Description:
Number of strands: 22
CATH architecture of the largest domain: 3-Layer(aba) Sandwich
CATH superfamily of the largest domain: P-loop containing nucleotide triphosphate hydrolases
Mean pLDDT: 88
Amino acid sequence: MAPVLEMLDIEKSFPGVKALQGVTLTVEKGEIHALLGENGAGKSTLMKILAGAQGKDKGVIRIDGQEVEIKGPLHARELGVAIMYQELSILPQLSVAENIFLGRLPRMPSMPWLVDWKLCYQRAAELLAQVGLDIDPRTPASRLKVADQQMVEIAKAVSENAKVVVMDEPTTSLTNREVETLFRTARLLQSRGVSIVYVSHRLVEVKEICNRATVLRDGMKIGTVEVAETTSKDWVKMMVGRDLDQLFPKAPIQRGKQALRVEHVTSRKLRDVSFEAYEGEILGIAGLVGAGRSTLARTIFGAQNGATGTLEIGGTKVVIGTPLDAIQQGVALVPEDRKIQGLVLPMTVRENITLAKLRGVSRAGQLNLRREGNVAEEYVDALRIATPHIDQKTANLSGGNQQKVVLAKWLYSDANILIIDEPTRGIDVGAKAEIYALLQQLVERGKTIIMISSELPELIGMSDRILVMHEGRIAGELGRDQFSEEAIMTYASGVTY
């Protein structure tokens, strides 16, 4: 029996870049097949070609043994290919049912210009039940959680009788419970003969859900392996071309003086939060989605108002009402959503790096372009930001390099206290190792880092202490000798020892 999908010797070039060089991907019927690689390895380009969003330069694509030329996204869907992008394509102003049947709403047989809403809602309810989602199909999509929106995307794929479903970083914004629901649905589709191409940087998930994995590096296929017969260390070596024996380069540092003191901070989402952070320390903050971690970060940075309580920096009480106040006090926030809140994507690497301290590259209100260029080059070299030049638009960089640009911006601003929310979200394993090494270098220089993360191995591997939040309050504090995923999750769930 022919594989359900064959992409053979695919090539794709963009001006100055060869994105894919003779890449082959073969997916069997009813298989969950991982597609792995660092950011910029070619995964997204390959999937966009499959989805009809981009054309290939060379190569052959076969679906169910038949050679096809995919002319566009609609044609791809007609051929049985459905794709769930990391940025969901749900239209929030439409109902769940309308999203599922977008562009192909069922019509009244006798009056084909009218939508058969009764049939539409009935079919939508049946599809939602198949993916384990118990909601009214009339519900506006804007009211759904991200996890439920993803289930609607899957229901849409099922409704189109998809043979191949591409899931691009599907668990980035999901809780552990929601990830379990997604996995159950994926296995249900698999049992019905649907094939899934699973694109993810989370190798633990690949081990749990996938049958085989194809690894790309620098636009080329490195190999395809059986997941059960290989380890995540094997995949990492294939992805980056080297061993990453020490992903977390944590080394003990003598803690310095108190850098930040937060006392009795209370707001609509925070409940009497108090803690201290010290120079030369990485203070981890854990908690489930909605526990108040990001709210706390934004409150300290002055980006979220309405809180009471006090802040001390270097032993002196300060009032931070705006982000400008925070910057002037040497506090920086690397936000969870770097694309929207951390960067101005249409601006260049050079412009983003100097954005928080324009006075450093200006004189009498006039921007000194030569000085700005020198500063940008210095940080691009120091942080090893992979960009063809400093005037590259930041939107064109990989996720890991975008994160480095955000860090470069705050390092140039002379920030001493860095609050970093989800430092490696959506970043490949090679870039993660570089980010971790950079964080270690910063605390060795006496900086204070408050690191918020949903990835427990990351918190355990890099933190000196961990505070665990539950429902807006600090539920517990753990020293390094107390670190364990079980201890963190116990506090995060509201259970006290």
